[in-house]
Amino acid sequence: MLSSLVKEHQAKQAAKRVIQEQKRKECIVAANDLTQALVDHLNVGVAQAYLNQKKLDAEAKLLHQGAINFAKLTQQWLTLVENFSSALKEIGDVENWARSIENDMKIITDTLERAYETTREQPSNTGSSNN
């Protein structure tokens, strides 16, 4: 009877070990599934962050290129404005030069007219004194 009790106890122990081993394997599978689900969930966020970062990098490159192009255009505009300003300055210088020449010509004309009038009056005075 004692041996039958021991055998029965050993059989129950073996059955419990089998059940425990099954439960341990199920637990390991469940833990692996949970871990995989958590990793997948985190990977979705990481993947989204990576995609967003790629988009930001592309936009930053476009913005940088746009800024470079804008700087080049701005430099061209500044050069054009400086050239225009210089041309206006030259036109102003030419205008002043022309006025100066005009004033000089008026002075010369007035002087020649006076000289002509003076010489015209003198011969008539000298001609009447000779007669």
UniProtKB/TrEMBL annotation:
Gene Ontology CC annotations of this record: BLOC-1 complex
Family membership noted in the UniProt record: Belongs to the BLOC1S1 family.
Native species: Arctia plantaginis
Spans traversing the lipid bilayer: none
InterPro entries from the UniProt entry: BLOC1S1
PANTHER family: BIOGENESIS OF LYSOSOME-RELATED ORGANELLES COMPLEX 1 SUBUNIT 1, BLOC-1 COMPLEX SUBUNIT 1
Any Pfam family matching the protein: GCN5L1
Biological process (GO), any one: endosomal transport
Record protein name field: Biogenesis of lysosome-related organelles complex 1 subunit 1
